[in-house]
């Protein structure tokens, strides 16, 4: 077979038009020719690729590599900070249009945000109020959906939902007889759904009122912090007059629902929570770092409200404040209040640490910047309290003893994160770890307590197999004895009042 000219050998062989033996000889000839001219003819420079490296910014190697300069990769690995900045700017220049615009917006927003220390963590995501405010701007100014979103954002929805849950859990865990069946001799359940409805509604309205008053007082300072500057009053999307009207209406409706639908004791606690949060805690944030302890007291009141609501349904006396909250039966409610009081510290100490410089610049007296070492110690100290509190709930008969075992891993997890937060002083991701541990810790404890209420699964088992419930029989005997005693006392009083027949 005769070889073609050298120019033909440089082109790809049309293997589809020749046999296998010829193509093999052509390949061998190409290899010999390439080796022969490698030392004689210089290789032509490679044509620059049409693809730019900026389109592959997700690849760290391509980010600093230029196809037209083979030495660019080596130079980029040894360049200083100025070279890296120039490379980044050049890469941003080659970005697609949308990514270029996003980079410009990010740079513009960064000019208004206070620069955090180089060792600080990124702030936590914005709260639900800021998210609702952003969503409201997508609707017309005077539309109902926009106004509703703005009013809901005044209530701090996530915080309000948490407050309602902390009131509902003690209500459901109150040790009343016949939890899963109607009460003996009565037509209504021992825990009334109607009472629970009034309790949740009134508690949510009281929380919404307190949060709205808090935003009214702090609107000027909220505008200076990255986490709160998107709230409706800080952005001027809602007038202060309308916010004040909303707060007053919510307070009146909430306290009224608790008074007429639950009992006066719970209504008093709801009103006290509004006054304590809006009238003491909020202004105290600019006076003393002890404001965190006042806020913890505010967080401990809703569990007492739920406990007093359940206690009022089974009260045998006048249902006074003393009977519902200051008897031996009320120990479980105070343990729940102590649990929520202690939970505030690891949660807030971790939440405030990433934005401590903003708290300082705004004038809020927070322990995270006044005394960072003590900030970590306080979080660790109160995270250890949950273990004895969980045992206490078992000891007073609110939950089964299995709750002390099942809650131990959750409590140890929170304590471990608090220990890291204290040792690392908030750095190395310890603040974020403690924050998320506290967020998941509270609902986990509540669910475990509800699942292991004292005597609940025994009643379920007896109802399934049809065995008699001894506890119900004891409750029935107690009710019969109590009714007979009341009748005897009433008959004695009637005999004293009614004169004998024939007397003058």
Automatic annotation (TrEMBL):
Tell me the compartments it is located in. Answer: Mitochondrion membrane
Q: Which UniProt keywords apply?
A: Heme biosynthesis, Membrane, Mitochondrion, Transferase, Transit peptide, Transmembrane, Transmembrane helix
Q: What's a Gene Ontology MF term here?
A: protoheme IX farnesyltransferase activity
Q: Where is this region: Disordered?
A: 68-139
Coiled-coil stretches, from where to where?
none
Bilayer topology term: Multi-pass membrane protein
Q: Which CDD domains match?
A: PT_UbiA_Cox10
Keyword Secreted (UniProt): no
> Could you say which protein family the record assigns here?
Belongs to the ubiA prenyltransferase family.
What is the protein's name according to its record?
A: Protoheme IX farnesyltransferase, mitochondrial
């Amino acid at each position: 077979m005769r070889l073609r000219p050298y120019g033909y050998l440089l082109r790809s062989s049309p293997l589809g038009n020749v046999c296998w033996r010829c193509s093999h000889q052509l390949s061998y000839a190409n290899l010999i020719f390439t080796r022969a001219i490698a030392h004689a003819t210089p290789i032509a420079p490679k044509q620059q690729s049409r693809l730019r490296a900026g389109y592959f910014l997700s690849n760290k190697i391509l980010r600093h590599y230029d196809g037209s300069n083979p030495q660019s990769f080596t130079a980029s690995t040894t360049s200083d900070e100025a070279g890296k900045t120039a490379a980044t700017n050049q890469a941003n220049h080659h970005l697609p249009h949308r990514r270029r615009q996003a980079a410009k917006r990010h740079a513009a927003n960064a000019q208004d945000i206070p620069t955090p220390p180089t060792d600080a963590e990124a702030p936590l995501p914005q709260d639900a109020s800021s998210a609702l405010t952003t969503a409201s701007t997508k609707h017309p100014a005077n539309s109902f959906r926009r106004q509703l979103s703005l009013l809901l954002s005044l209530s701090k929805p996530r915080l309000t939902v948490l407050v309602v849950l902390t009131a509902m859990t003690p209500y459901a865990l109150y040790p009343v007889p016949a939890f899963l069946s109607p009460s003996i001799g009565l037509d209504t359940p021992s825990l009334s759904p109607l009472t629970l409805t009034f309790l949740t509604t009134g508690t949510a309205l009281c929380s919404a009122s307190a949060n709205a008053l808090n935003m009214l007082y702090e609107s000027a300072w909220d505008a200076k912090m990255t986490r709160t500057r998107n709230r409706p009053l800080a952005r001027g999307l809602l007038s202060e007059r309308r916010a004040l009207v909303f707060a007053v209406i919510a307070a009146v409706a909430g306290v009224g629902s608790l008074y007429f639908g639950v009992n006066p004791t719970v209504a008093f606690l709801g009103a006290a929570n509004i006054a304590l949060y809006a009238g003491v805690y909020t202004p105290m944030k600019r006076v003393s770092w002890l404001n965190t302890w006042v806020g913890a007291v505010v967080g401990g009141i809703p569990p007492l409200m739920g406990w007093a609501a359940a206690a009022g349904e089974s009260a045998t006396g006048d249902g006074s404040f003393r009977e519902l909250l200051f008897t031996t039966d009320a120990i479980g409610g105070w343990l729940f209040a102590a649990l929520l009081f202690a939970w505030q510290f690891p949660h807030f100490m971790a939440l405030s640490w990433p934005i401590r410089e903003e708290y300082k610049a705004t004038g809020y007296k927070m322990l995270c910047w006044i005394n960072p070492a003590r900030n970590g110690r306080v979080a660790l100290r109160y995270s250890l309290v949950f273990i004895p509190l969980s045992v206490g709930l078992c000891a007073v008969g609110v939950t089964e003893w299995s709750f002390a075992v099942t809650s131990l891993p959750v409590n140890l997890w929170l304590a471990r994160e608090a220990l890291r937060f204290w040792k690392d002083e908030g750095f190395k991701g310890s603040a974020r770890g403690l924050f998320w541990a506290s967020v998941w810790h509270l609902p986990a404890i509540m669910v475990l307590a509800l699942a292991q209420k004292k005597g609940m699964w025994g009643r379920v088992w007896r109802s399934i197999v049809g065995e008699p419930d001894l506890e119900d029989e004891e409750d029935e005997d107690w009710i019969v004895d109590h009714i007979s005693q009341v009748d005897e006392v009433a008959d004695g009083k009637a005999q004293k009042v009614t004169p004998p027949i024939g007397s003058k």
